[in-house]
Design a protein that fits this description.
36% of the residues lie in helices and 25% in strands. With 110 residues, it is an alpha/beta fold. The longest helix has 25 residues.
């Protein structure tokens, strides 16, 4: 599709003449440059909402049994936001249905 647009633009500019093509190309270049300057302010930041990441560090130990959940890290449902976990404690799960998390876990809570 991009190639078709480029070829179509080249053919159009060749048909309208060199002087008019130069003026049109200058106008298009000005619009593209203005958009490039404004884009960081108009478009969302990569990685979600920006700002400080969700962060957890220096947590204690946790233990789950009998279908429970142990979490010494970070559980977040926001998959577009940055998250960090550092020096988290040990999370242990014993028994069927038990879960343990000591890092970053994304998605809805069970």
């Amino acid at each position: 599709m991009f190639a078709v647009v480029v070829v179509g633009l080249v053919v159009y500019l060749a048909v309208v003449g060199l002087d008019r093509a130069d003026k049109l190309a200058s106008s298009i270049s000005l619009l593209v440059a203005l958009f490039a300057l404004a884009a960081p302010y108009l478009l969302p930041a990569p990685g979600g909402s920006g700002g400080e990441p969700d962060r957890v560090e220096d947590t204690g130990d946790a233990r789950a049994s009998a279908g429970g959940r142990a979490n010494t890290g970070l559980h977040t449902g926001d998959v577009g936001r940055a998250a960090q976990a550092a020096r988290t404690g040990d999370a242990t799960a014993d028994g069927p249905g038990s879960t343990a998390n000591t890092g970053v876990q994304r998605g809805p809570r069970p």
